[in-house]
Amino acid sequence: MKLTLEIWRQRDPASAGRFERYPIEDATAEMSLLELLDRLNDALVAAGQDPVAFDSDCREGVCGSCGVTVDGRPHGPVPNTPSCRQHVRSYADGDRIRIEPLRSAAFPVLRDLVVDRSALDAMITAGGHIGLDAGTAADADAEPLPKEAAEYALDFAACIGCGACVAACPNGAAHLFAGAKLLHLGTVTRGRAERGRRAKALTGAMQEQFGPCSSYGECVQVCPENIPMTAIAAVNREVLRARLRGKAD
């Protein structure tokens, strides 16, 4: 299969970027988009040129590091599928594929397809965690959690922090990510003790670098873990709850 790749190339954050066109003569339907980039980089290195920089790790749809924008859509053409699980079979012989970084003011480009997603890390540092006393771990049965609550928490814990929701949002909002963390940690037994403090801290960090949510819904269409829009509703609800209680839990 012959394909033409238009790849965003940018040397560093201070440099101007541009699209460069590369023909691929031997693509196969079984290849993932990342394997397609691997094939391109093999050819570039063999020709003495700089390979295309892009992030990847597990390549199993678990780590969230591989996000790119494909033909204007975060991750690629198949809904709710990470970039590493998007395949060439979605295209026909002779097609052109435009690949660029995840686009958001909160995700500055570092090089080529690599972006800085530390704005998401700042939210986790501020409130995306549970405080525990150091020492011997508590017995697993000491703090029972109903199965339904555990399953509910795990559904939102599935968020892999890829940032596609932010890139898909016209406002660059991170409410789907924030809501997933709040619902996950606010449901488990230990997490409920810090529920109010967490809501204030996490959303405060979110508002510093991300835009407002207008409930467009593009975020849920690209989320690899199918986090529902109920996570977005949880953001304002958790903040309001904390305010009504007058102080952090």
Description:
This is Succinate dehydrogenase iron-sulfur subunit. Keywords: 2Fe-2S, 3Fe-4S, 4Fe-4S, Iron, Iron-sulfur, Metal-binding, Oxidoreductase, Tricarboxylic acid cycle. It comes from Mycolicibacterium fallax (Mycobacterium fallax). Pfam families: Fer2_3, Fer4_7. Belongs to the succinate dehydrogenase/fumarate reductase iron-sulfur protein family. With 249 residues, the protein is of the alpha+beta class. The protein has 2 domains: 3-111, Ubiquitin-like (UB roll) (Roll), CATH 3.10.20; 117-245, Alpha-helical ferredoxin (Fumarate Reductase Iron-sulfur Protein, Chain B, domain 2). It has helices spanning 33-46, 118-127, 147-157, 164-168, 175-187, 195-209, 218-222, 230-245; strands at residues 3-9, 18-24, 69-70, 73-74, 96-100, 109-111, 114-115. Strands 2-1-5-3-4 form a 5-stranded mixed beta sheet. Strands 6-7 form a two-stranded antiparallel ribbon. Helix 3 packs antiparallel against helix 5, helix 5 (175-187) runs antiparallel to helix 6 and helix 5 crosses helix 8 (230-245). The longest helix is centred in the C-terminal third of the chain and has 16 residues, at 230-245. It is elongated, with a radius of gyration of 20 Å. The mean pLDDT is 94.
